[in-house]
Amino acid sequence: MYSKIPPLGKLKAKMGAAAEDASVSGVMHFVAARADEGAAKVTLPDLDSFSRFLRKAPSMLPTEIMFTIVDLLRVALVDARFSGYYAEEKDHKTIAPLLAYINTLKDCPYSLRLVALQTACNLFSSPLYSQHILSCPALTEPIVQLITTSLLDDKHHNVRVAAASLSFNIAVANSKIRAEEHREGLPEGDQIELAASLLEAISVEEESPEALKGFLLAFGYLLYRMPKDGDMVDLLKSMDAQGTVLAKKKLFPDEKLIQDIGEVLLGKGLE
Questions:
Q1: Helices (H), 5-136
Q2: What's the pTM value of the predicted model, to 2 decimals?
Q3: Contact 160, 151 (CB under 8 A)
């Protein structure tokens, strides 16, 4: 999880007039009190009011202010009660449109894209959320879109790493459902879109061992115990997934996952 708390005084100053909204100041107080006193001693703020603010914010605030609001949301979501509230919100009417809005920004600022990815990662602080993220199209689609547009950000290593982390969270949640319930949690189309994007990211990564490891971990969990009779196998063969992964040995000789995924999951695992 991305739990680092920014200096709240500076964050408040950057928010400008938005910081004076009672719902925003309530969440700010919650974050500060939780850090000082521990989660057990702090009650949740007025999340109905904060949700209304979040739903209006994209149409009211410039993107540089939206960054501060989403960053506040990110750090508050570390609390499982806070994220649990949004996991159970009807139609995910606050979080889903917020992520969709960020996806629509033609030149989304680096800071906003990064904090949006980190915020989506922190949704997983509540065990209630993963099922919704995998199976509710209103939530799945903007999250997958956010990932796929971020994995290939060649200018910002941190964005690629955060996109890999979010992919990993989704892949692990789906893998758990495979193991425990013997079914797929994430629709096959979304799995294929993620796998293709991760494979492309693996193929072009030349600089960051951290990003490559993240891509490989997410990719590996997507493949582990996958159905052998689906379209995923065809995709992996058509994109020469095994060759793509094993080719990274030259640039990243110390990364053991290359061998594990290339030889085992994409070799013996596809036989």
A1: 8-15, 22-37, 47-60, 63-76, 80-87, 95-104, 110-122, 129-135
A2: 0.96
A3: yes
